[in-house]
Amino acid sequence: xxxxxxxxxxxxxxxxxxxxxRTHMALKHKQLPFETIPWRFSDKEVIAFSGxxxxxxxxxxxxxxxxxxxxxxxxxxxxPNTPSLFGSAEAKRHARFIKHWTETTLHPMVSRMTVxxxxxxxxxxxxxxxxxxxxxxxGKTLEEVVSDREDxxxxxxxxxxxxxxxxxxxxxxxxxxxxxxxxxxxxMLQWARSSSAFPVLLADDTVNxxxxxxxxLFAAYAASFPTPGK
Length: 230
Ligand SMILES: N[C@@H](CCC(=O)N[C@@H](CS)C(=O)NCC(=O)O)C(=O)O
What we know:
Radius of gyration: 17 Å
CATH topology of the largest domain: Glutathione S-transferase Yfyf (Class Pi), Chain A, domain 2
CATH class of the largest domain: Mainly Alpha
Strand order of the largest sheet: 2-1-3-4
Number of helices: 10
Strand content: 5-15%
Shape: globular
Order of helices and strands: EHEEEHHHHHHHHH
Bound molecules: glutathione
Number of domains: 2
Oligomer: single chain
Number of strands: 4
Distance between the termini: 29 Å
Structural class: alpha+beta
């Protein structure tokens, strides 16, 4: 059976990596049975066999694949008879644009709203590494990073305009049914939902309608995972 190493909080069932959430959704979309192996930041040696230090890492028989985009490509190539993640070559290029938009514009804002909450959800063995590496990245303390998160949320709402407009026109970014572009953006919101009680979306934002649609996919798969305090 396919296995993948998936970032876990102190609560082993709480999974919060935006990249791993892409892989969760991709595997459900491909209708493939799989198991996840909970992994923590300090378990670097456990995934050393993959030749790098980030999750997700997918193991399918004798194949090991790291990087969420490469995993999605692998799944479509290795399992052509289940629903395609990308669809056409053109659609795949559009998904690539969505990936870049998500990682360069949206991820930094979510991080600036939730990074201190993430720290508090982590297993204690991960906390010193997380604080040190993220404070180095931001050049300030995590408390300082989140101090203006109300303002960040306003900027985030503006940045989400393309998603808001597209999902008002059609149920999913990929049209009538979801595809990998949807999973990329949804995984970013699932990262926030799984690691922080701070509502990164305002209650009246219509992006919530699409998010709920995504949470309901595959027998409410993503909704079934624990969130902070639950
Ligand atoms: N480009 C990679 C990025 C994966 C990545 O950054 N994963 C994070 C978890 S969200 C990680 O493993 N971080 C380990 C660390 O920071 O030490 C992908 O798309 O899979």
